[in-house]
Design a protein that fits this description.
Blueprint: H1 3-6, H2 10-14, E1 20-23, E2 30-35, E3 38-47, E4 50-58, H3 64-79, H4 84-101, H5 105-116, H6 123-141, H7 151-158, H8 166-185, H9 208-211, H10 225-233, H11 238-249, H12 253-257, E5 264-265, E6 270-273, E7 284-287, H13 290-297, H14 320-329, H15 338-350, H16 355-361, H17 369-374, H18 380-394
Antiparallel strand pairs: 1-2, 2-3, 3-4, 5-6, 6-7
């Protein structure tokens, strides 16, 4: 029997030149396949009665010794009933899928925003997400794979600003937590979320409420409201008129500033705010007291593209800062959003109207989920009475509220 059938040396393998399959011995079925300048290790084997061939690498990148080790490992799999070629393909596919799932934190953050952006109505909210991530998170953990991010990396982002910019840091923590939760659901990472507050970071960082207590929207005391409304009546301009309508409806500043004439039914005294402009995402019917209806009848209407009820001089949306500045300039202690608290305090402390009806007036969700599930209507008749009493109270010191 020729020596090459038994076992060739590395030197003898290097001298092979003839095209074809050359058995090198040492392991049954191991060959060096030569086609022109190409040299490749091949293993012939039989699995489930079928003859198969499996490549083991290119010579001389893969040495004779390594080729024999690979051939022995493959032969061992065949002995256990496993197809080594199929096993290798499955392993490579698993590795490919694993690599495909590996995202950096920045890639995950951008994907998260893109996926959720259609449901975010507030452009300012979208900008805040993008800007805070770009400012605080991406420079420190943006290039890290999601699987690499642990508590230490999360703390690198939020610890430096936890005491100086507590609200920003707290929101940043929450955004990192949401992105990592999203990544877990999508199969990009596994395990406990390192940005979670309860049970984890709460033991490593001081409570944000104690570091920087929450500052609630400053509100005009309800005892002062009639005088404040009278003061606003003496101020010219759309900002003052918008604030007066905020008072009439106990609505949010953004809802009033974005109000359009097609949303108003003066005959039925109802203003219907579409879901895309509501914080809750659900359509809300606002009851208009008689004073608000008369107010709108006297409100000049511009035939422009936006058809806004309270347009700026250029026909665009009034900014929230415009309303806030007016209150500061005229020494009205409060902010536009605070009039909702003024209404809630007045209704709760001076009237006997049903609590749930009061909450619906300001588009708050009923706390009791069971009760909310059974309540199909929006208590419109009860809200009519509440808003009339409120408007009567607000205009009690004003001779011509419209």
């Amino acid at each position: 029997m020729p020596k090459r059938i038994l076992e060739m040396t590395a030197i003898e393998v290097a001298r092979l030149r003839e095209d074809g399959d050359h058995s090198v011995g040492g392991v049954s079925g191991l060959y060096l396949q030569i086609i022109g300048a190409s040299r490749c290790w091949m293993l012939r084997y039989t699995h489930l009665g079928k003859r198969k061939r499996m490549g083991l690498g290119i010579y001389p990148t893969i040495s004779l010794a390594v080729a024999r080790d690979s051939a022995r490992a493959a032969a061992a799999l065949v002995q256990t009933g496993i197809d080594p070629k199929r096993a290798r393909e499955d392993e490579r596919e698993a590795a490919r899928m694993h690599d495909a799932k590996q995202l950096t934190f920045k890639q995950a953050g951008e994907a998260f925003i893109k996926e959720h952006e259609p449901g975010w109505k507030n452009l300012k909210h979208i900008d805040q997400w993008k800007n805070t991530l770009a400012t605080y998170a991406y420079p420190k953990i943006g290039k890290l794979l999601l699987s690499q991010i642990d508590q230490a990396y999360v703390l690198q982002v939020i610890s430096p600003i936890w005491s100086t910019k507590t609200e920003t840091a707290s929101r940043m923590r929450g955004r990192i937590e949401q992105i990592l939760d999203w990544a877990t659901v999508h199969g990009h990472r596994s395990g406990v979320n390192p940005a979670r507050w309860r049970g984890q970071l709460e033991y490593l960082l001081p409570n944000p409420d104690k570091v920087a207590p929450i500052e609630h929207h400053e509100a005009v005391p309800y005892e002062d409201l009639p005088q404040v409304y009278k003061q606003l009546c003496a101020i010219k301009g759309q900002a003052a008129r918008a604030l007066r309508f905020v008072i009439f409806t106990a609505g949010r500043s953004g809802e009033v500033r974005g109000m359009k004439w097609q949303e108003v039914d003066l005959f039925r005294a109802v203003w219907t705010i579409p879901g895309e402009r509501m914080k809750s995402g659900r359509e809300h019917r606002v009851v208009l007291p008689p004073q608000a209806v008369e107010f709108l009848r006297n409100q000049p209407r511009r035939k422009d593209r936006e058809d806004l009820v309270f347009p700026s001089p250029r026909g665009t949306f009034l900014s929230d800062s415009t309303l806030s500045k007016l209150m500061r300039d005229h020494k009205i202690n409060g902010v536009p959003h605070g009039f909702r608290s003024t209404f809630r305090d007045w209704a709760g402390e001076t009237t006997h109207h049903p609590r749930d009806a009061i909450e619906l007036c300001i588009a708050h969700v009923i706390d009791n989920k069971t009760e909310a599930a059974y309540r199909r209507g929006d208590m419109i008749k009860k809200r009519v009475a509440i808003m009339k009493d409120w408007a009567d109270y607000a205009t009690s010191e004003t001779t011509n509220p419209a």
